[in-house]
Design a protein that fits this description.
The structure is a homodimer of 349-residue chains.
Chain A: E1 2-7, H1 15-28, E2 32-38, H2 40-50, E3 58-62, H3 73-79, H4 84-93, E4 99-102, H5 106-117, E5 127-133, E6 139-143, H6 153-171, E7 177-181, H7 192-202, E8 207-212, H8 216-219, E9 224-226, H9 229-254, H10 258-278, E10 286-289, E11 294-297, H11 304-319, H12 322-348
Parallel strand pairs in A: 1-2, 1-4, 2-3, 4-11, 6-9, 7-8, 7-9
Antiparallel strand pairs in A: 5-6, 5-10, 10-11
Helix pairs in contact in A: 1-2, 1-11, 3-5, 4-5, 6-7, 6-12
Chain lengths: 349, 349
Amino acid sequence: MVRIAIDCMGGDFGLPVTLPASVQVAEDYPEVHFLLVGDKTQIETALKSAKPSRLSQFTVVHAEESIQMDDSIEVALRRKRKSSMHLALLAVKEQQADACVSAGNTGALMAVARFILKTLDGIDRPAIASAIPNQLGKGTTVLDLGANVDCTPEHLLQFALMGSALSQAIDGIPEPKVGLLNIGSEAIKGNDVVKKTGDLLQSAPINFIGNVEGDDIFKGTANVVVCDGFVGNVLLKSVEGLAKMISKKIKENFLSSLYNKFAALIARPVLSKFRDEVDNRRYNGAALLGLRGVVFKSHGSADILAFRCAIERAKRAVESQLLDKTVLTIQQMTHLHQETNQNNNNILS
Amino acid sequence: MVRIAIDCMGGDFGLPVTLPASVQVAEDYPEVHFLLVGDKTQIETALKSAKPSRLSQFTVVHAEESIQMDDSIEVALRRKRKSSMHLALLAVKEQQADACVSAGNTGALMAVARFILKTLDGIDRPAIASAIPNQLGKGTTVLDLGANVDCTPEHLLQFALMGSALSQAIDGIPEPKVGLLNIGSEAIKGNDVVKKTGDLLQSAPINFIGNVEGDDIFKGTANVVVCDGFVGNVLLKSVEGLAKMISKKIKENFLSSLYNKFAALIARPVLSKFRDEVDNRRYNGAALLGLRGVVFKSHGSADILAFRCAIERAKRAVESQLLDKTVLTIQQMTHLHQETNQNNNNILS
């Protein structure tokens, strides 16, 4: 059994998205149990009208308040301790759930998750990792996407370890290829932090393939791409912006005349296949890594399909023991470090 | 008259692209004079077969060697001083040309241009600026795109001044809106350097509109977006990578069956209009800013149309006095600084 706590009130839409998505997953996977956290009356009404086949797959947990998308981190963290987000995370902490999924404000979710769950030993800062669709029809996992600015090489090393464990768990790849995001050979290669990180990654217990560039994310050169949160967030927002612009332009052009509308009709099957292939809803669900618990963050504006994907990612992470894999990778690293220090001491003595 | 020195041998294709592009521009603009720099015999043969209407628009300057795309900066700078790139830049330095256009290796071009032309007073580091197509059908100027990693707030301030002058000159906007690339309000706002840069830009003699995010580049929120060269290069390569992936997927899907090929035929007019709208060849031509001369860098793999666009940008920069505008903006800044210091001294005394 996989037990997933849903922050039902989070995101731009709240219950009308989170509840049907949960019910759909429950229908497909009888082994999943949901803790639906939020306003009890509202949830029960919505659940009744959704008519799930097995009501026993759901437990409703009442939360008397919810965190709004524009609530500050301070408010989310200190003043709304009875929010659906807090209680969903608390369920993970108290081992009533194996994972938490929320579409709430990223900053708030990271702060509250860190406060409630605490970070894993050997991890200084949790990171946000998400898959970006590549031309191989798979996802390239990129981290950090905005939780950390001003990272040290040690932070980036930790991101690489956690990203590798995530890709093992979610993509089922035994030794994911890990690349360090850098800039072209044309310019001076990388900034100071990235250069030092490259050295650290060489001796880490991961399949480090060296530097990669921005376009490698879409080529699928690496399974995991590591960068600091400032760069990752700019990258994510930029590619989202371009994708939106292109889809808008395609639509506008196909609607611009009677002939073009006819062309759109003829081209619909191929256009919708294309849309499915690059549909980033299928990749919704960013992992908050480095915490003592599995937490997935859905896009705030996720629709039912997208939120469903986020739940399924959380489910896969639990089933494939993401947390154990992460802890193991970090332990291997620590062990390697100790060995190196031991050897250095031997040489010195 | 506008005199443009062309590094005819630079880029992935050299003469077969640079020469026809120059001839096309010469045909359209009788007021442009070209200094065609490279292998004299080859250029003269190519020029003869291109049959320009007015041969008087061209002067051939012989260069006995050329810089290859994979030559190191060291080789380009020290060992190939008689290359077409060197001589084209020298023509600008010696006021035989008003601008230089090269499709050669970016790192080499920046190093040689800096060596030959030197930087402007008040500028610590030259930057690379290019326009990225936005959904308003215009270009958002982004800089730096990779010349500088590890920038200080003062460097970013200088980029903002130069970018504003470039947009004035090329886009013809009197007070271009300048945005500072930052990450969302969701996370901690920006890294240390960006926070300090924000303060500096507030009091700069430009139309600073505050922070912008990655997707604002495509929305056209600002005319100029400022970032360090590491972030800018990652951004540029990422969006190029996504654009390539999308265009490949569209092509693949339209060729995947007989029906889809038929659909492609019907949809061709609308697809090609769409392609034109987002065609980044029309935005080819990155400005190397902060030098004592106008230098434009074309994409290495530019075709004739794209190289033509780079030449036209250089022409527009000369005609609209980019260099004077840049110097003026920097002087205003210096003047403001002196005033502030003066006031501070008065307060202290």
